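Loading example: each entry is read as two labelled lines plus one structure line.
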Amino acid sequence: MKKIISIILLTAAVLSFTSCEKYLDVNTNVDAPDAIEAGLYLPGILSAYQGFYWDIRALGPLSQMMGSSSYSNFAVNYYSSGSDAGGELWRMTYWLQGMNVENMINQAIENEMWTLAGIGYACKAFSWDCIAKYHADAPVLQVFEPGRLAHDYDYQYTIMEKVREWAETAIEYLEKEDNSDYGTYLSKGDLVYHGDKSKWLKFAHSVIVTDLACLTNKKDFNEKYAQELLKHAALAIDNNASNFTVERGGGGADAQFSAYNNFWGTYRGNLTNGYWQSDFIVEIMTGTVPVYDEATGDKVKAEVPSAWTKWELNPKQIICDTSKETGHYDPRAAAKLSTTDGQYYNKMDDKEAIKDWVYFGSGFTGAAGPNGTAPNLYGFRAASPSASVEGSGRWLFRDDAPYIILTAAEIQFEVAETYWKLGQKGQALAALKKGVALDMEFTGSYLNPGKPAETSPGVFAVGGGLPGGSLIAKATYNELADEYLNGPYVNGLKESDLTLSHIMMQKYVALWPWGALEAWTDLRKYHYDIKYTGEYPKKGNGWTVSSIDQKWDTDPTKVYKGFYLAPAQVESRRGSYNTKNEGSPCYRVRPRYNSEYMWNLNSLKALKPISGDADNYQCSIPWFAYPGEMPESL
Amino acid sequence: MFVQKLSNLKRFVLAAGAVLLMAVSAYAQNVTVKGTVTDTNGDPVIGAGVLVKGTNTGVSTDADGQYTITVPRNATLRFTGLNYKEQEVPVNGRAVINVMMQESALTLDQAVVTAEFGMKRVARSVGSAIQNVKASEIAESGRESFVNALQGRVAGMTITSTGGAPGSSTSVILRSATSISGNNQPLYVVDGVPINNNTLSTQSDFAIDDAVNSYGMDFSSRGNDINPEDIESMTILKGAAAAALYGSDASNGAIIITTKKGSAGRGKVSYSNSFRWDMPYGIPEIQTKYANGRFGATNYYYTSRYGGLYPEGMKLYDNMSALLQTGFAQNHNFSVEGGTDKVTVRGAASIIDQKGVIKTTDYQRLNFTLSGRAEVTKWLSFDGSMQYMKTGNTKAEKGLYGVLYRASRWPLNDDMSNYINEDGTMSRPALYTDTDLLNPMYALYKNYNHDDINRMVASFNANITPTKHTFIRATYGMDFSVGEYKVYVHPYYGNPASSSYGKGSLNFSKPTYRDQSIDVLAGYNNQWGKFSFSIQAGYHQKENSQKILAVYGSNFQVIDFYSISNCDPASIQTRTKTTMRRIQAISAQAEFGFNNMVFVTLRARNDWSSTLPKGNNHYFYPAVEASFVASELPFMQRQDVISYLKIRGAVAQVGKDATPLSIYPALEATDDYGGGFRYGYYGPNPDLKPEMTTSEEVGFEARLFNDRVNADFTYFWTKCENQYITAFRLSYATGFVLNNMNVGTFTTKGWELHIDGDILRLSNGLRWNLGLNMDHSTSLVTELPENVSEYYNAYTWVSGNLRNGISVGNPITTMTGRGYERNEKGQVLISPTTGLPLVSEKWTIMGDREPKLKFGLTTSLSWKGFRLSAVASGRLGATVVNGTMRDMMGTGSSWQSVEVREKGPVVFEGILKDGKENSDNPTVNTIAVDYSHYGAYTYTGTDEDWLEKGVNYLRLSEVRLSYTVPQKWIKTKTGNFISAASVWVKGTDLATWTNYSGIDVVCNSNSASLGGSGGVGIDLWGFPNPRGVAFGFNLTF
């Protein structure tokens, strides 16, 4: 008996151990793949760019493109403590794209799919360029190393250098002959250019242009960066058909997933009545920048108040003015801004009526502005928008609008600025004109004119269909656009009258509001037009704990006419910053809280001159805004 | 006449029972002996062994202490029982032998503990802490879940029920947690087969992520499916020592359950029942003084109660009570059993039907059991059992956004119980112009949260004894279940202004679990003089398979019809989730004994797991146990205070594998336009290692004063290394948000004490016994990666910024939160502009939820047939998050908020944060703030204010009075038709004494499905345990 049992046991043991490996090999996922073809990563990488639109909720208020009660911490140049608010670009670059881009690039190179590898590098370069502009310093050299839990921070210049290096690699791959069969990976999966390699090449060059463009305040810009910028600009995005825009499916409630709709559309409703067009953008786009009494900071009352402002207007408007003469009116106002006028959609082709529409901008943290209450961004009411009244929204604020990431106009303004720095005013003016024309076309192309209402706003008895839409007809817009382009502010602008303000403020208008990051970068580069002596402002030289000394609009060196920060003590922009700012405006957005402050704090602490965990880290001036090198300590 | 009828019935029942019986062979030269084994009080002794001396044949007594055995006429019967003196009685041809057993220490240590795949070990040789719970106590507790019945009865066992709703999940921790993020529940072993104790995950087991709030829905834990009536004995193995045999799943201890297999002798039919009424208890009171509004002005646009006084004569409704009803539960148990000393069989059916105290909630359970054992040949015996269980559970949403919360927000001037309009839509409160308030009554009647489980647990054991000193035991077990979980939201349950209104949603998940195990043990034991020796070796194989099919749909076409086919096809999403875990292991054990006084046991096990990377997939873990029975020493035998004293110690190590699919994350289809795939939150970890827990313990067992007092004490300490943490948060610079990693080490230590004794033991049979269980444990996190300031589970982040965060240098049961901002001296800083204290931006440790002391009290008073027993459990020095009161303070619905509001201006104690806060002359705050002018939400302080520390409580969980009708009397009266009868009446959770001000001290904001310390100790609109009154009777035919 013993023998038999021993034999049985022994056999069982032997059998089970020889088949052990096979028996245990059950740890594979049968419901989802852990490896895919490179091309399948692409749509996810591209649609992740909606992260921009998330963070414009912080950047809009920071750049004074928007006022916000929802992200009011950013509107007062502070941050949301202990929160991931404003951390979406981080999430996008490091995670949503992150390893997906790495895998795509590596697999593409392995399979000699050069176009796809080039696309990967271009996206990687661009996303990190945004990280550098937005957060300034961030980990880049040590990222994605397996097993590494703490990541050292790299300073902005390192990241920006890497960005250009990756963009060059992208160019190199995109220029290679590529006979790979991509199937529908590019024709469908490429939500930006549908596999048009030439456009990707332009984009890769554009990444280098915008990366260098933020360095114009550097002492060595002209000698070190300007020519490289111009070289790439010549090969960069040069028409609106090559703009970097990410397609959206739209569909409102009928979309299979809500993310098919634009983050700013009415269906997802992320810009409910907590975000408005700012007083500043309304002033410059309608030519109503007021005159301030430089002794008190108060606005000067107009002798004859108009319908939309009781203040005396600055005679030197930069974008346009309130004159009814041909070419003085900028129709981009009717396309971009919201107004409570024209809400019956029955004056969409009435040029004169359109010119009379009144726009109100908001305060920093509330809808109420100095002249009136700003309406919501979707249509024409001050109330929360709803799909039943505003339909699927208007212009870029609609469910099926693509995400606008980079445009030809932006590149032209950067070219103009570079020429201006180089003292080549003629070329600067030419680029400026080209830029405005491109933006005029760009802006008009997203118009979705609404239908005339029968009885009251949003009630459509005849014809049915969705309510809402843009308030101006396309033809009317084009007519007004031609007039404006041929008017005194664009083609009529003389080289002798050209100022940096024209270039930067037209760029600001063109970027509104989708390019808030770039606009904020420009504002910081010019130190918010703070009045200081020496190389850069600091406490006691530009601001005190309770006030900021800002250049008056009459100062010819002031770039952004009409722009005032909250504690600059001009009327209707008065306010104060969080005490932790110690009077300083915000210069960078803190890294994502639940990534860095929770899990990488030690590395963050090592940053200089202001440590990453300091109360005023958000005020630490980034490298690009210092004319020279960054100080080791302050 | 009546008796005659009964006899007929009895015959019929017996005949029916006989169908279930296997062939029974009888021997002509044998005699069938039956009888009842009682203790000195006349109470039946359950599970006593009745053995034929000199053989292995035997039976054990049933729940009524009865046995039947067929033996040779001249045999001698040996009666043995846990805690009783052994007796030998010669049969001498008698047919009835009733035995009264003496409780004694002399044999107590000889008692065997049923453990380790049904292999019996002599208690005195066991070196680790073990506690047996009498099956009768569990059955008598009358709880639907046997787990809840253990509360207060076992030292070192912490039971946290998620709430008082029917079918609530239960979180059980033995000693202390051994995992920071993973499962800390003990292993449930039924007849040698580990069973599944899953709780459905609300986060990932439905078609869409986080389909249901983890704090809103509680899916019952599968351990609750076991019918308490089927349990014959239960042994609690604390600590990691259990793992050497049951494997790593037992690293948190194990609850070993042996089910009844029927007893030999006269066929028997039993019936028992229970009827219980539950009364809601502890529901927070809503203030009836101030109406909705803000700044003291009544305005029903606001849901918070910061308006003016309610106008006199205004009818106010008790909307909380509208949700409640008197719960009712009934339970009926039938069993049929019989057999011979060779073959026994038992069939049982049990039904529970419970209506909860929250309207529409219910729980049903049906258990069918068939079990038996047979001595097939001299060298082969076999036992097996099959249990079919079917449970149904309808539940209400709890927690933040649960029905209690929603009722608290409903304006008092409106009768919430009129929840439905004529057109079927949800009624809105009068005077309230907005449409965002949801009527919880509508939720109860129109939403549908339900689960149905069909489950089969089967086990087969074969024992082979090839020679006198060897054995082979093979066990196969299978636990198979199919669940259907439904969470349906009615289309009209929502805000008409929202885009999802009128659509409704349906979440349906159908998990199939199959757990199989094969264990083969072979051993040899023998004795040479004073030396005893046994060795055994085992092979173990285990498989846990899970297949989930889940579907989501919305946009119902027919409003009141809940079916996936009624959903818009474009809205339908599905998920399949398939995981498999397999383990192979070999084990070995050797036990040496000397003189019945010193024992040493060595054990080792090596596992190969499918869930770990190939190079790291096996792990070895040894254990050593020793016991020394000091009372055997000659000098000890000369005194009579200590009759038994055992000193024991054990060191055990246990490895743990990972959860399946932890190594390489799957790519997820994007739900974004354009499709494609991308990584989810998880990153890969090809270097995953098994985690290791080393547990050490020393203790003693003693019986004093002629066995009137029993004491058992254990001191333990544990080191948990290489902690396998799921969902470990990372810097995004790793490319991922979470990973499964081996990080962290923590230690625990503590003690457990059990002491019981007969306070009274009078000659007239009066006996009063009092027992006390106490335990205390602490833990200390000694190591986390340097970049980690805190580890927490985000699902516990439900009240303010409090969450179950842990950090190095602190226990693993801490809560972190954002307290007041303080200056260098620790004084609270006040905002110079608002006069309110400033809140720190940093999360810091706020408190430790582990109580200073946990205890349970058991007592029983018996006299003749009467028995009065009670169980109470309590805690001292606990920390509880009072999220409910915090919420009510904010919204002004508690009386506490009225008090604060009426207090007038307050100057918060602290220092102004004006730049001088760290100087020698800081500005003391003098700014008065009036709560009543704070707006629609009052100031609720910070997280610090809502942790109640030093919470003590005592809950009277059971009081029971039973009367056993004298057998002689009942037999005579019923013509032997009824052989035993008892009646009882009982109260459950009758009273709680506590200094805690919230709903329930023993609470869980989430459910038992959350790993680590989970949401235990966070009180946020949970359902308090109701008060119950029950009665019932037991009959044996």
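The radius of gyration of chain B is 31 Å.
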